[in-house]
Amino acid sequence: MDFLSLPQRTTGQREYGLTSIADFGTPLNQLEGILKDYHQFVDIAKIGIGSAYVTPNLSEKINLYKRYKINVYFGGTLFEKCYFQGKITNYINWLKELGINWIEVSNGTIDIPLKERLEVISMVKDEFTVLGEVGSKDAESEMPLEQWKEELHLLIEAGCKYVITEGRDSGTSGIYSKDGAIKTDLIREMVEGLDVNKLIFEAPTPKNQMFFINQFGSNVNLGNVKLNDLLVLESQRRGLRSETFFLEEKECNLPL
To answer: What is the DSSP letter of 123?
Structure first.
């Protein structure tokens, strides 16, 4: 069955058009059922916040994602906890033991100077696929535009495969205001001169997702997606929802 003209989606081991889900404790049996049906819509799985450290059956969960060729990493909060306690080396060794080869380097909870984050990226980039992150989880924090732009550029130059724009799982900080409004002017200006395919926009709700799809096309990279929203999101990407009904094919590399 293939008779509709729909926006073309990237497939297989995608380099862009990524859907990155946030796993905040999905039971293993439930996860297996979801992935059996919808794994083709998932590229990356984040075991959210610091929950990986206390997740029962962690190795089994990692292996389940790997079975479906989904890349796994742990939430940046866990990286920051290890940094705060001086345990980055322990953290890196633990990731290797678990067979995790993606790592997030963030500063959403504590203020890790950019210079020190760049040093960490330099240290791990030959052994890990590195995700950087820009923005604070503090809804009261308003980072200047120039800082957003500087950090995005420098993190990509330092070797991050992708850089995540902070939005939290609630969509109330970073690229969103504390009432959930999307900071459209900030997004418009911060992406100028960047390859948007290198960015992963945290978009935890269908409303957030529709905004980025309509602005950047079906193959925009989206993160913090809920497992239960996978089919809805893929339908939105293909112009099969009212709000994206007239979506045209477009390259995901243009500013708003």
So the answer is: H
Say if CB 215 and CB 245 are below 8 A apart: no
Strands 222-225 vs 199-202: parallel, antiparallel or unpaired: parallel
Alpha carbon distance 16, 9 (integer Å): 10
Q: Higher model confidence: residue 192 or residue 142? A: 192
Q: CA distances (Å), 222 to each of 31, 167, 174, 208, in order?
A: 20, 11, 15, 9
CATH class of 19-244: alpha beta
Hey, what are 240's tokens? 């099969």
Percent of the chain surpassing pLDDT 70: 96
Residue 72 in contact with residue 62, Cβ under 8 Å? yes
Helix/strand/coil percent split, the chain, to 5: 40, 15, 45
**Do the beta carbons of residue 45 and residue 52 sit within 8 Å?**
no
Does residue 45 contact residue 71 with C-beta atoms inside 8 Å? yes
Residues 162-201 have pLDDT tens digits of: 999 999 988 999 999 999 999 999 999 999 999 999 999 9
Neighbours of 249 (CB within 10 A): 13
E strand intervals along the chain? 19-23, 44-47, 71-74, 102-105, 129-134, 162-165, 199-202, 222-225
Output the average pLDDT for the chain: 94
| Domains of the chain, residue spans | 19-244
Q: What is the pLDDT of residues 37-95, one digit of tens each?
A: 999 999 999 999 999 999 999 999 999 999 999 999 999 999 999 999 999 999 999 99
Residue 121 near residue 105 (C-beta atoms within 8 A): yes
